[in-house]
Amino acid sequence: MQVIVLGSAAGGGVPQWNCRCPVCRMAWSGDPRVTPRTQSSIAVSADGSDWVLLNASPDLRAQISATPALKPRMGERDSPIRAVVLTNGDVDHIAGLLSLRESQPFALFGTAETLGLLKENQVFDVVAPAFVSRTAAEFGRPFSPVPGLTMEFFTVPGKVPLWREDASLVIGEETGSTVGVTITCADKRLVYIPGCAAVTPAVRERIVGADLLFFDGTLYRDDEMIEAGVGTKTGARMGHLSMSGDGGTVALLKDVPVARRVFIHINNTNPALVDGSQERHAVEQAGWTVARDGMEFSL
């Protein structure tokens, strides 16, 4: 199995277009300690020819341009992208579908809830049903978006997309609004969880023994956006675990056996984005890698 990190940042990317938090100021000034990042997505292939995207970020057009494996290869129109698999309906995970509207066949997979959000919004009709099939994958039922790859959705604690929040909002619910994905190829297993509000026994069970884990790395500290003066919400309020602390991801998954663990979906305020920072050193000492765009893995 081949894996490419197309984008490693949370919504807005790094630097965020209007942000001057400490990390973004470093990025805007060209400080080499902060590598710019686009919004999160990975590409997976069993053979290096047919590729599946896990989420379609608003930066997808630029990500394809930066990734030779995803560029057209033959004829007048062509794409090695055979399928897109969605883990939720957040803007930073679905807006890129609008860049895939030029009558190119591929398959789209998501939960019934996520695909329902697309159906309700007519702008996504430009991704024409005549070319793009939509399949609601059920929990507990593996599916194969391309030969050689088998995927399965599982629920993780989360919430509805920001643009669907209302007075009935519940954070940490386990429904079809936020999912993780297990991806198997031969005897190798990748687990992809770009958004997670809590580590439950069921989530731990899915992670155990993975050859590669991509996990929600949105914030380093729960209140860092507030402390940076660029937001009013904690990570918990946004439905994301933080990396650090007794209730953070590093501590919660410390004893879970995983061959390689990578933080993805990293917010622009997260100090672990800074090469050489104490926060980067702490997560790396704990066995984690901080994802960057263009990273490749072979399993």
Automatic annotation (TrEMBL):
Q: Which biological process annotations from GO are given for this protein?
A: pyrroloquinoline quinone biosynthetic process
Keyword line: PQQ biosynthesis, Transport
Pathway(s) where this gene product acts: Cofactor biosynthesis; pyrroloquinoline quinone biosynthesis
Transport among keywords: yes
Residue span, Metallo-beta-lactamase domain: 51-266
Q: Give a Pfam family name.
A: Lactamase_B_2
In terms of SUPFAM superfamilies, this protein maps to: Metallo-hydrolase/oxidoreductase (SSF56281)
What CDD domains does this protein's entry cite?
A: PQQB-like_MBL-fold
Cross-referenced InterPro entries, in alphabetical order? Metallo-B-lactamas, PQQ_synth_PqqB, RibonucZ/Hydroxyglut_hydro
Q: Per its UniProt entry, which superkingdom is the organism in?
A: Bacteria
Instruction: State its role.
Output: May be involved in the transport of PQQ or its precursor to the periplasm.
Similarity section: Belongs to the PqqB family.
Protein name in UniProt: Coenzyme PQQ synthesis protein B
Q: Which gene encodes it?
A: pqqB
